[in-house]
Amino acid sequence: MTPDGKEGGLDAPTRHPLNQNDPKFWDEDDLNKELERVYDICHGCRRCVSLCNAFPTLFDLVDESPTMEVDGIDVADYNKVVEQCYLCDLCYLTKCPYVPPHAWNLDFPHVMLRAKAVNFKKGDTKFRDNIITSTDMIGKIASKPIVNTLVNIGNKTPPIRAVLDKTIGIHKDAKLPPYQRKTSRKTHGALIFDPNKVNKSTTNSAHERVTLFTTCYCNYNEPSIADSVIKVLEHNGVGVDLAAREHCCGMPKLELGDLKTVEKLMQQNIPALYETVKAGNVIVAAVPSCVLMFKQELPLMFPDNEQVQAVAKAFYDPFEYLHKLHKEGRLSLDFKQSLGNVSYHVACHQRVQNIGPKTKLILELIQDTMVKNIERCSGHDGTYGVKSETLEFANKIARPIVKQIEQQAPDHYGSDCPIAGRHIENNLKKNNANSQEAIHPIDLLCLAYGI
């Protein structure tokens, strides 16, 4: 019970800046005291036990300790919890009653991020993790001729995957996405933003224009998703630009605790995006983690950077933007095909944007289409679902989603997070090799439009 007599908070959650430039942030003794305080509150609540493997790990440590309290846990084991957290933020925004403005001021994801940052600064990071979080670098290399063929073949070759498992810890059974030679930004190079002129290749429209942040995944792995975003926007009379330059949003490095690289990527991305915002553009990206990075994480890291704040205000989830068009009477409803029964996984990093079920609302504008939301974490997180030590947990976390989809037997299923969609697909195919493939909701919209 807090001094004001309140057990839990009913006020809307609010986030405080990360304060990574405060020397106290990097003080390991102070961090351990904060971890003990947070772990003790979580132990007394246990409401988040079903979200991910971080909380079961914590509670097992407590229950197996001599005192059956947090004070019985060896401080050296605190990081066992940190290693299981992939910063989905669901505990903060969907479960925890003690988040700010509650007096206990509990922000579990930010405490985990602080611990990851301290560990990274100390050098307690695996070589593998530094590599697999360098998504832009990997994409640039893997999309090159010859290299592209070798990478894609290697990813499907059991002996090579077995070697990767034993040497650097990429699980031999983890499905790795293929890389494309022709990236999205190469395909749509004519859309590169020029402040001095309107791109001739876009539609004539008095509406605001959209800057598409293609993301590493949609640029190198599934360019078809970026293609679909462009098709849908242009079908609705909205012109599309690409920023003059684009790098990884920084989310993989944030989850690693590499805050210096996050800042470097911010300095590379924000000026180019800000130029399009100054010209009146809004921004969209088809990967929720990238949207969240620009809308929430960077503003909390750099609260005094005016360009970061301006870009954050201009950033939209694609279906959030389409819903905005619909409210203004500007969304085309000339659908040619119904979608029937759709099983839709709501990505964690979309849920925590607090935008509501915009994807479901838009898809259900299509005639004879019913969408069932599944609000459970897929467990993949980009890197968590490929590591040798965590793939088992990632698959376990995905099981409730797989079960719901199998029970629903939908005409289509998918997620706004394409990586989550593929992870769910891979788990479905374990039960039934002939099960259908996941399809991104923006691709479903193209199907309905007939474009």
Tell me the layout of helices and strands.
Blueprint: H1 28-45, H2 54-63, H3 78-82, H4 90-95, H5 108-122, H6 127-132, H7 135-142, H8 147-155, H9 158-167, H10 184-187, E1 210-212, H11 216-221, H12 223-235, E2 240-241, H13 251-256, H14 259-278, E3 282-284, H15 288-301, H16 306-314, E4 315-316, H17 318-327, E5 340-345, H18 348-351, H19 358-363, E6 369-374, H20 391-408, E7 412-415, H21 418-431, H22 441-449
Parallel strand pairs: 1-2, 1-3, 3-4, 5-6, 5-7
Helix pairs in contact: 1-5, 12-22, 14-16, 15-16, 20-21
Summarize the structure.
The chain has 22 helices and seven strands.
What does this structure look like?
With 451 residues, the chain is mainly alpha-helical. It has four domains: 23-122; 127-167, no CATH class; 184-316, no CATH class; 334-449, 3-Layer(aba) Sandwich (Rossmann fold). The chain is 49% helix and 6% strand. The chain is built from 22 helices and seven strands. The protein has helices spanning 28-45, 54-63, 78-82, 90-95, 108-122, 127-132, 135-142, 147-155, 158-167, 184-187, 216-221, 223-235, 251-256, 259-278, 288-301, 306-314, 318-327, 348-351, 358-363, 391-408, 418-431, 441-449, and strands spanning 210-212, 240-241, 282-284, 315-316, 340-345, 369-374, 412-415. It has a four-stranded parallel sheet, sandwiched between helices. Helix 1 runs antiparallel to helix 5. The radius of gyration is 22 Å and the shape is globular. Mean pLDDT is 93; it is low at 199-206.
